[in-house]
C-alpha cells in the first residue's frame, strides 16, 4: 500500500492545476494518476489556438497551454504516473489503479481530487436510424485521428451538433482538404462559442442549419450519405423537409458527459443536471475528503475556467489535509426560471473569502438581467445584453454578504427578461 | 487444397457443424465471405435459447429445438461461452390469449419440453415486478435461457481451428463445380476442393444451392429491428418475456442479455434485399410501443444502440437439413430461422452424424473439446489482477475504460485461433467499445493495436472488413 496526502485522478488541465495549487498551499505528498501516455489530457489534441486568453492574457494552442502546467508539475517535483488507470475509490479513500510497470496499485489518500474530464455522447444515445457503416464517429475521435495520428477520417463530411468540438473540427477538416457540407444543429441556437461560429464556419462558408437533424445514415460498408430534416419546436423531424446529402463521414458533436463512473461507484451524490458531483465552494463532494473539478464536475466552455476552478479544489483539498477547519454551515444554491444549474450547489457561510457562483442558462436571451436572491430577497441584479447556453456566466457573492446568511438558506439565480 | 468437407457460412450453424466435424480424422474447411465469423444473423438476433413449445410437433424445428436447448448449457460450459438459464414467460393479455397459453403448454408437452407451467397474474407479478397491469397470466418455461450468440460462434470456430479445421475468410462462394466425386468451390480468384459441401449460408442458402442447380430453396430475409438498453435498466426483466405468437413469429420480447443489458425487439418484416440491415425510426418506435405493452415503464432514454438482423425464412416453414436432390454430397442446412440459435448444438451433431456415416471417419485421439476461457480482467478480483499483470504487463494497460478491457485481452483476441482482424471483431471478442462511449476513446487505440499486431498501416484497418475502412490518406 502506498500513502499520499492527495491523489489526483486525471492529469489534464484540471488535475494539474489542482495539484499545483495544493502544493503551493503546503502539501508535499501528491500523486497524479493519468490514463494517457502523457500529462495534458484532451488539450494535447486541441492544436487550435484560443486557450489562455483569460488566464494568461495571451492566445495559446491546447498543447502550449498544457505545457505551461506540465513544466510547473515537473519543476515543483509533483509525482505523477501516466498510462495508469484508476479503477476504484473506496469508502476510506483508498484508490486502486493499474498500469504496466507497477501492476495493481493500492494507494491510501487523505484527500482525493477527481479530475477525470468528460466524454462525448455517442451515436447510440441519439438513436439515429439507418446503417451501421464505418464513418460515423464523434468529433473528438476525428480530432485525435487528424491531429495526433495524422490520418484523415473522411473527405466529405456532415457534422451533427454545433458544440465547440464540432465547430473546431469543421474548420480543421476543411483546412486538411475535406469538404464539410453542413453543420446541423437540433436546437434553434448553437451551443458553441460565438467566436467559434465566426472563425470556424462563417470564415469558411460552411453552412450552419439550426433546428435541423440527421434522421438517417446510409451506406453498406462505409457511409455514403445521410438524410437530414428540419425539426419542429418539439425537436421532431418535420415530414417533407427531408434532404439527402452525399458524404462519407458523419461527425457527432452532440454533447459532453462528465465521466463519473468512479464517483458513482463510491456513492457520491450527483447533480442530475450537470451529471457531476454536488459540491461546496471548495469543490468538496458529499464524500469527505473527495473533491472534484474541471469537466468531470460540469462541462466548461473555456479551459481557463477549468484552471481557476481546479485551483479552488486544490486549495480546498490542501486545507482538508492540513486540517483545522470547523464544521461547515451550508446554504444551498438553486437555478430557477432560465438558469439550468449553479456550481457550487452549496456554500459554507463560514467561508472566509468571496464565493464565485458559476451558472448556465437554458436558452438564448437578449437584453435580460440575471437576478440573485437570498431566501426570496433580491441581493444582486445585473443587466446582460446576451446570455447563451454555450457561455458560462458567473456572479460573486462578497464575503460580507455571505456572513449575513444562515445555515439552511437558499440562494436562487434567475433570468428576468 | 483438398478437403473432406467444406462448410459454407461461418454463422452459428456452420461454425458448430465445423466444430463437431473437427472431432474426426477428416479435413474440414469453413469458408466465410466476410472478414470474420458471426457477421450476419448470428450477431443480430434475440440471443434466446427457446424452450421449444412453439414449433409444430414432429417438425425438424421442434426436434432440433428441444434437443439443442438441452445441449446448450453443457456446450456453453465446454466452450466458455456465457449462458444464463433465466427461463421464459409468454404473457397473455386476454382470455383468448390465456387459451393460447394452454395450447402452447400442450404443444410443449408433446414436444418434450420440461417443466412448463401456467402462472396466474399474481405469480407472474412475483416473477416480473415490472410487468404490465394488463397481463392476465403467463406460460413459464424454466428450460429457456439466454446466450451470447456471436461469442458462441466465435468459440465454436476457435475450437474447430484448434482441432485442425481451417477457417477461410473473405471467400465469397461464386461457383461450385462437381467432377469425379469432388466439388470445386470458387470465389472467382481461388478455389478449394471438397468431397462434401455443407450449405449453411443463412439468408443466402438459396443462392448457394442454385450454384449446383438446386432450385428447391426459397429464402426470404425477414428483418427484425432491436433496441439495446443500458445496464442501468437491466433489472426490468428477470426472464425472457414474450407475448403470444403470431403468424410472423414470436412477437416482441423484452429480455435480459448475458451482459446485463436489456434487449427489446424484434420487428418482423419480409424484405427483398438480403444485405439490408438498416434500422428505421418508425419501426423502432413500433417496437418500443409493443414492448411497453409487456413492460410499460420502458423509455428510449436508456437505449444505447439499435440494430437489425435478418432471419432466413424459407417457404417450407421448417428447417431443411438434408442432402440436395441434385447431389447427395451437398447438404443443405437452410431455413434456419428462429429457433435456429437454440437448435444450433443439435443441428451441429445431426449434420456431423450424416457426414461421418458417409465418410466412415474415426474420432481423433487428441480432440480438445474445451476452449480455454478468455481472460476477463473486469470480472477478476484485485489479487487475480495483480498476479495476471505480473505474468504479462499488457494486462496492466486499460484500453477500453467504459468496460475495463486491457491491452492484453485485445492482443489475445487478435492472436486467438481465427482471431480478430477488424475493430468490430475485437469488440465482439472483448467488449472493447461496447460501453457508454461506444468506442469514442478506445476506437483509435484498437485501430493502433490491430495495425501494430497485423503489421499494416493504420489506414488499412477496417470496422468490419470490405470497404468499411476507418481512415483515408495521411493529413497534409
Q: What's this model, at a glance?
A:
The complex is a heterodimer of chains A (417) and B (476). By secondary structure, chain A is α/β, with parallel strands linked by helices.
| Helix amount of chain A | 10-25%
Termini Cα gap of chain B: 46 Å
- Give start-end ranges of low-pLDDT stretches of chain A: none
Give the overall pLDDT of chain B as a whole number: 96
CATH superfamily assignment of the domain at 83-145 and 221-308 in chain B? D-Amino Acid Oxidase, subunit A, domain 2
Describe the structure.
The complex is a heterodimer of chains A (417) and B (476). With 417 residues, chain A is an alpha/beta fold. Chain A has three domains: 190 residues, FAD/NAD(P)-binding domain; 133 residues, FAD/NAD(P)-binding domain; 90 residues, Immunoglobulin-like. In chain A, the strands form seven sheets. In chain A, strands 1, 2, 5, 6, 7, 8 and 20 form a seven-stranded mixed β-sheet that branches. In chain A, strands 11-18-12-13-14 form a five-stranded parallel β-sheet. Chain A is globular and about 65 Å long. With 476 residues, chain B is α+β, with helices and mostly antiparallel strands. Among the domains of chain B are: 151 residues, D-Amino Acid Oxidase, Chain A, domain 2, CATH 3.30.9; 84 residues, Arc Repressor Mutant, subunit A, CATH 1.10.10.1100. Chain B has twelve helices and 22 strands. In chain B, the strands form five sheets. In chain B, strands 1, 2, 9, 10, 11, 12, 19 and 20 form an eight-stranded mixed β-sheet that branches. In chain B, helix 1 packs parallel to helix 8 and helix 10 crosses helix 11. The longest helix of chain B has 20 residues. Chain B is globular and about 60 Å long. The interface between A and B is large, with 52 and 54 residues.
Question: What structural keywords apply?
Answer:
heterodimer; A: 417 residues; alpha/beta; FAD/NAD(P)-binding domain; Immunoglobulin-like; seven-stranded mixed beta sheet; five-stranded parallel beta sheet; 8 helices; 21% helix; B: 476 residues; alpha+beta; D-Amino Acid Oxidase, Chain A, domain 2; Arc Repressor Mutant, subunit A; eight-stranded mixed beta sheet; five-stranded antiparallel beta sheet; 22% strand
Amino acid at each position: 500500500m502506498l500513502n499520499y496526502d492527495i491523489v489526483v485522478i486525471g492529469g489534464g488541465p484540471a488535475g494539474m492545476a489542482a495539484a499545483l495549487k495544493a502544493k503551493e498551499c503546503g502539501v508535499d505528498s501528491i500523486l497524479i494518476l493519468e490514463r494517457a501516455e502523457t500529462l495534458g489530457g484532451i488539450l494535447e489534441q486541441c492544436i487550435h489556438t484560443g486557450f489562455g486568453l483569460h488566464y494568461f492574457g495571451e492566445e495559446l494552442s491546447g498543447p502550449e497551454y498544457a505545457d505551461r502546467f506540465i513544466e510547473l508539475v515537473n519543476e515543483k517535483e509533483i509525482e505523477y504516473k501516466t498510462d495508469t488507470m484508476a479503477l476504484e475509490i473506496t469508502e476510506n479513500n483508498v484508490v486502486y489503479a493499474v498500469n504496466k510497470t507497477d501492476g495493481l496499485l493500492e494507494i491510501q489518500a487523505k484527500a482525493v481530487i477527481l479530475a477525470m474530464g468528460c466524454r462525448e455522447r455517442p451515436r447510440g444515445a441519439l438513436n439515429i436510424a439507418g446503417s451501421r457503416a464505418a464513418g460515423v464517429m464523434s468529433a473528438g475521435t476525428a480530432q485525435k485521428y487528424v491531429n495526433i495520428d495524422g490520418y484523415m477520417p473522411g473527405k466529405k463530411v456532415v457534422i451533427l451538433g454545433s458544440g465547440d468540438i464540432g465547430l473546431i473540427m469543421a474548420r480543421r477538416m476543411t483546412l486538411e482538404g475535406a469538404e464539410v457540407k453542413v453543420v446541423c444543429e437540433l436546437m434553434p441556437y448553437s451551443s458553441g462559442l460565438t467566436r467559434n461560429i465566426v472563425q470556424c464556419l462563417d470564415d469558411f462558408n460552411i453552412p450552419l442549419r439550426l433546428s435541423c437533424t440527421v434522421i438517417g445514415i446510409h451506406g453498406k460498408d462505409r457511409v455514403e450519405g445521410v438524410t437530414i430534416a428540419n425539426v419542429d419546436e418539439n425537436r421532431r423531424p418535420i415530414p417533407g423537409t427531408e434532404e439527402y446529402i452525399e458524404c462519407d463521414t458523419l461527425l457527432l458533436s452532440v454533447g459532453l458527459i462528465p465521466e463519473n463512473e468512479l464517483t458513482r461507484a463510491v456513492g457520491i451524490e450527483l447533480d442530475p443536471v450537470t451529471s457531476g458531483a454536488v459540491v461546496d465552494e471548495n469543490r468538496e463532494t458529499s464524500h469527505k475528503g473527495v473533491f472534484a473539478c474541471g469537466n468531470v464536475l460540469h462541462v466548461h466552455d473555456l479551459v481557463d475556467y477549468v484552471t481557476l476552478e481546479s485551483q479552488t479544489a486544490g486549495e480546498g483539498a490542501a486545507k482538508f489535509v492540513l486540517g483545522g477547519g470547523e464544521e461547515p454551515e451550508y446554504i444551498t444554491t438553486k437555478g430557477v426560471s432560465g438558469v439550468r444549474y449553479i456550481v457550487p450547489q452549496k456554500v459554507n457561510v463560514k467561508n472566509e473569502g468571496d464565493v464565485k457562483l458559476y451558472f448556465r442558462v437554458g436558452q438564448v436571451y437578449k437584453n435580460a438581467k440575471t437576478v440573485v436572491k437570498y431566501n426570496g430577497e433580491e441581493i444582486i441584479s445585473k443587466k446582460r445584453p446576451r446570455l447563451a447556453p454555450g457561455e458560462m456566466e458567473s456572479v460573486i457573492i462578497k464575503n460580507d454578504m455571505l456572513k449575513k446568511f444562515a445555515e439552511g438558506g437558499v440562494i436562487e439565480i434567475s433570468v428576468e427578461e | 487444397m483438398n478437403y473432406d468437407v467444406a462448410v459454407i457460412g461461418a454463422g452459428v450453424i456452420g461454425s458448430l457443424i465445423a466444430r463437431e466435424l473437427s472431432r474426426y480424422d477428416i479435413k474440414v474447411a469453413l469458408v466465410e465471405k466476410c472478414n470474420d465469423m458471426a457477421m450476419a444473423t448470428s450477431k443480430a438476433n434475440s440471443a434466446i435459447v427457446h424452450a421449444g413449445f412453439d414449433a409444430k410437433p414432429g417438425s425438424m424445428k421442434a426436434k432440433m429445438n428441444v434437443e439443442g436447448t438441452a445441449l446448450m448449457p453443457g456446450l456453453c460450459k465446454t466452450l466458455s461461452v456465457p449462458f444464463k438459464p433465466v427461463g421464459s414467460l409468454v404473457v397473455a393479455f386476454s382470455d383468448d390469449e390465456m387459451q393460447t397459453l394452454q395450447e402452447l403448454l400442450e404443444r410443449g408437452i408433446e414436444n418434450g419440453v420440461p417443466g412448463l407451467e401456467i402462472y396466474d397474474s399474481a405469480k407472474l407479478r412475483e416473477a416480473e415486478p415490472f410487468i404490465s397491469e394488463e397481463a392476465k397470466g403467463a406460460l413459464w418455461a424454466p428450460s429457456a435461457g439466454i446466450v451470447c450468440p456471436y461469442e458462441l460462434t466465435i468459440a465454436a470456430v476457435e475450437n474447430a481451428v484448434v482441432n485442425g479445421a481451417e477457417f477461410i475468410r473473405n471467400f465469397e462462394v461464386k461457383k461450385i463445380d462437381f467432377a469425379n466425386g469432388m466439388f470445386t468451390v470458387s470465389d472467382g480468384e481461388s478455389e478449394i476442393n471438397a468431397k462434401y459441401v455443407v450449405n449453411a449460408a443463412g439468408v443466402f442458402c438459396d443462392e448457394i444451392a442454385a450454384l449446383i442447380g438446386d432450385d428447391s430453396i426459397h429464402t426470404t430475409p425477414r428483418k427484425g429491428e432491436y433496441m439495446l438498453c443500458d445496464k442501468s435498466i437491466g433489472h426490468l426483466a428477470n426472464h425472457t418475456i414474450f407475448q403470444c405468437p403470431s403468424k410472423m413469429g414470436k412477437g416482441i420480447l423484452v429480455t435480459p442479455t448475458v451482459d446485463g443489458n436489456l434487449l427489446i425487439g424484434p420487428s418482423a418484416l419480409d424484405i427483398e434485399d438480403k444485405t439490408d440491415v438498416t434500422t428505421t425510426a418508425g419501426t423502432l418506435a413500433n417496437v418500443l410501443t409493443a414492448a411497453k405493452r409487456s413492460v410499460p415503464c420502458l423509455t428510449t432514454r436508456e437505449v444505447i444502440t439499435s440494430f437489425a438482423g435478418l432471419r432466413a425464412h424459407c417457404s417450407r416453414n421448417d428447417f431443411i437439413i438434408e442432402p440436395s436432390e441434385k447431389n447427395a454430397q451437398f447438404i443443405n442446412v437452410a431455413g434456419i430461422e428462429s429457433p435456429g440459435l437454440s437448435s444450433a448444438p443439435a443441428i451441429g451433431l445431426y449434420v456431423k452424424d450424416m457426414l461421418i456415416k458417409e465418410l466412415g471417419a474415426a474420432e481423433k485421439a487428441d480432440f480438445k473439446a474445451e476452449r480455454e476461457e478468455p481472460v476477463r480482467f473486469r470480472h477478476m478480483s484485485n489479487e487475480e489482477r495483480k498476479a495476471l499483470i505480473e505474468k504479462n504487463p499488457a494486462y496492466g494497460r486499460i484500453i477500453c475504460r467504459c468496460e475495463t478491457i486491457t491491452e492484453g485481452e485485445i492482443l489475445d483476441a487478435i492472436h486467438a485461433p481465427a482471431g480478430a482482424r477488424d475493430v468490430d471483431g475485437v469488440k465482439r471478442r472483448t467488449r472493447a467499445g461496447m460501453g457508454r462511449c461506444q468506442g469514442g476513446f478506445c476506437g483509435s487505440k484498437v485501430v493502433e493495436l490491430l495495425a501494430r499486431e497485423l503489421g499494416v498501416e493504420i489506414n488499412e484497418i477496417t470496422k468490419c472488413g470490405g470497404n468499411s475502412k476507418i481512415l483515408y490518406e495521411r493529413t497534409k
